[in-house]
Design a protein that fits this description.
Elements (H helix, E strand, L loop, with lengths): L1 H14 L8 E4 L9 H9 L8 E6 L6 H10 L3 E7 L3 H7 L5 H14 L4 E7 L6 H14 L3 E6 L7 H8 L12 H17 L3 E4 L2 E3 L6 H7 L12 E3 L3 E4 L4 H5 L5 E4 L2 H9 L10 H6 L1 H9 L3 E3 L4 E3 L1 H5 L1 H9 L2
Parallel strand pairs: 1-2, 2-3, 3-4, 4-5
Antiparallel strand pairs: 5-7, 6-7, 8-9, 9-10, 11-12
């Protein structure tokens, strides 16, 4: 199926009628870092715009060799996002990851030696067995490997997942008893904000932190509602007016099931995605009037702040951002 999927993906990219030349490229989902050099080159070779302003590939730690890194550079990749999750062995074992902190440090060294100097580290706050001390250990390792970008995600447990069901039942499997509380997870996140800022890695979006000039140019397009096109199963696209979603499952995608289009609600979405950015948004006169009630309610509650022109989340508002976003989507 892997070969069939790769061939279908290549066909979709080649068949696309480009209305504009892409500035950025992002290979994510699944294990794009495991693609053979020839296959990666064939896929990216079908995308116009090389050299792009930014081209990212997601990779799992422990699979990066000098030859792999050179192949990425040759294909146009200049940014790598490592799915680290944690630098602590006990936490990594609970997630089924096989890498160690030393593995990540070695991968970063290989990438830098190959000429890739834009590296993201993914961390998850709220993993099973995580404590304030172990979270601090992961942040210590971030300081050691000195990435240009860090993503910090607060673990959200799907109640229909094995871990979620075990937590609801009060069981012990899958680390259910060792999963930090929501308050503890929020504390981990706030500690990360503080520690990363001290390293010169500032928060520019709820889950994303970067050294100046290393903000993800590709992901900023999502949050600023700029057009983008996605390829592959469950890929999403946006042309400025309409959102498009490819068939969700690989099986449906391979069987030729077509995408589904849905008109975008730009004013609602601008609040939903724009408020994720630390810079906030500048509502127009109609939006100030339309959202007057929730804006003032959240201003009074200390979840939003404004200078009269720009509207942004406060520190407390970031932690309760889902409640804020939902209110604007409901109008």
């Amino acid at each position: 199926m892997e070969v069939r999927y790769r061939d279908a993906l290549a066909r979709e990219i080649r068949a696309h009628a480009w209305a504009w030349t892409p500035e950025t490229v992002y290979l994510g989902g699944g294990t794009p870092g495991n693609l053979a050099a020839a296959d990666l080159g064939a896929l990216l070779g079908a995308v116009p715009g090389l050299p792009w302003a930014e081209a990212t590939i997601e990779a799992a730690p422990g699979n990066i060799t000098p030859a792999t890194a050179r192949a990425w550079v040759d294909a146009g990749i200049d940014r790598v996002s490592l799915g680290v999750q944690s630098f602590v062995d006990k936490e990594l074992r609970r997630t089924g990851r096989r890498h160690t902190a030393q593995t990540v440090a070695g991968d970063v060294a290989v990438l830098r030696a190959s000429g890739i100097h834009n590296i993201n580290i993914d961390l998850i706050a709220g993993l099973s067995a995580q404590t304030t001390a172990s979270w601090g250990e992961s942040l210590d390792w971030v300081a050691r490997v000195a990435p240009e970008h860090v993503s910090v995600y607060m673990l959200e447990v799907d109640r229909d997942s094995r871990l979620g069901k075990e937590m609801l039942l009060g069981g012990v499997r899958y680390g259910a008893l060792d999963t930090p509380s929501d308050d503890a997870t929020a504390d981990f996140y706030e500690l990360a904000v503080e520690r990363l800022a001290a390293l010169g890695i500032a928060r520019y979006e709820i889950s994303n932190f970067a050294r100046p000039g290393f903000e993800s140019r590709h992901n900023l397009k999502y949050w600023k509602l700029e057009p983008y096109v996605g390829f592959g199963a469950d890929a999403h696209s946006f042309d400025g007016r309409t959102r498009r979603q490819n068939a969700e499952s690989i099986e449906d995608y391979l069987s030729g099931a077509g995408p589904v289009d849905e008109p975008a609600h730009l004013s609602d979405e601008r609040f939903f995605v724009g408020l994720r950015l630390s810079a906030g948004i500048c509502p127009n006169a109609d939006e100030w009037r339309r959202f007057d009630a929730p804006i003032h309610r959240f201003l009074d509650a200390g979840l939003l702040e404004t200078d009269g022109t720009t509207l942004r989340l406060t520190g407390r508002g970031v932690l309760l951002s889902n409640e804020v976003f939902q209110e604007f989507l409901n109008l």
